[in-house]
Amino acid sequence: LAIVTRRMDLDPGAEIFSDPAQPPLVFTGSTCDPERRAAVEQVAEVVELGGDGVDLVAMLDWLGRNGASVVLTEGGPNLLEMPEPELYARACRHGWSFACEKRSASR
Questions:
Q1: What is the overall mean pLDDT for the chain?
Q2: Of 2, 25, 40, 58, whose CB has the highest number of CB atoms within 10 Å?
Q3: For a pLDDT cut of 70, what percent of the chain falls above it?
Q4: What are all long-range contacts of 30-37, with beta carbons under 8 Å and residues at least 24 apart?
Q5: Using an 8 Å Cβ cutoff, are 2 and 25 in contact?
Q6: Selected residue with higher pLDDT from 33 and 82
Q7: Averaged over 81-105, what is the pLDDT?
Q8: Kindly report the CA angle at 11 between 75 and 37, in degrees rounded to 5?
């Protein structure tokens, strides 16, 4: 499980952080609140990618290099500011077949 957050307004006591054997990934940028980040780092693996927000291209690269084969996103209107063709192209380069199929269909 990966969470994308610019503000790091997460509750470290939430159930999603309760299994120390499977801590979630939390992607954030360098401008997040340092106190909140320190609290979340106690219960999750925090990955900084970007400045004022998360660099989604870098996040997809990171996920691909670390063995992710499926990405399901759910979020607010700013989460996927990257143009859809670029998102699919990046995922396709990492061998995610659904993205290659989607990319071919849109051409």
A1: 83
A2: 40
A3: 77
A4: 31/6, 32/5, 32/6, 32/7, 32/8, 33/7, 33/8, 33/9, 36/7, 36/8, 36/9, 36/10, 37/8
A5: yes
A6: 33
A7: 70
A8: 90
Distance CA 33, CA 21 (A): 26
**Which of 6-10, 14-18, 30-34, 53-57 is predicted least confidently?**
53-57
DSSP annotation string for 29-54: -TTS-HHHHHHHHTTSEEEE--SSS-
Q: What backbone phi and psi angles, to 5 degrees, belong to 92?
A: -60, -40
Tokens representing 95 are 């061998």
pLDDT digits (tens, 9 = 90+) for 34-74: 999 999 999 999 999 989 888 888 888 898 889 887 776 66
C-alpha closest to that of 24 among 35, 14, 9: 14
Tokens, residue 50: 């970007």
